[in-house]
Design a protein that fits this description.
By secondary structure, the chain is an all-alpha fold. It has one domain. The chain is built from three helices and no strands. The longest helix is centred in the first third of the chain and has 22 residues. It is elongated and about 35 Å long. The model has no long low-confidence stretch (mean pLDDT about 90).
């Protein structure tokens, strides 16, 4: 698995967790979902992604999106 796929998998897991929290705990967890979406949007324009930096330090090989 390369860095790009790891970041996308992590974002997908975080969105699924936030949806479960909205359903089971409180609708206020939609703020967390919005934060994830905004982070993905800014990463698409700037190329800066904190999760990508962490995964890179964990040893994932670079992909096309995050170098």
């Amino acid at each position: 698995m390369n860095l790009d796929r790891a970041v996308m998998a992590f974002a997908g897991v975080m969105i699924l967790i936030s949806v479960a929290l909205v359903y089971f705990v409180s609708p206020l967890w939609l703020i967390f979902t919005a934060f994830i979406g905004l982070n993905m949007l800014q990463a698409s324009f700037t190329g800066f992604c904190p999760a990508a930096m962490i995964f890179r330090k964990l040893g994932f090989n670079a992909g096309c999106a995050f170098k």
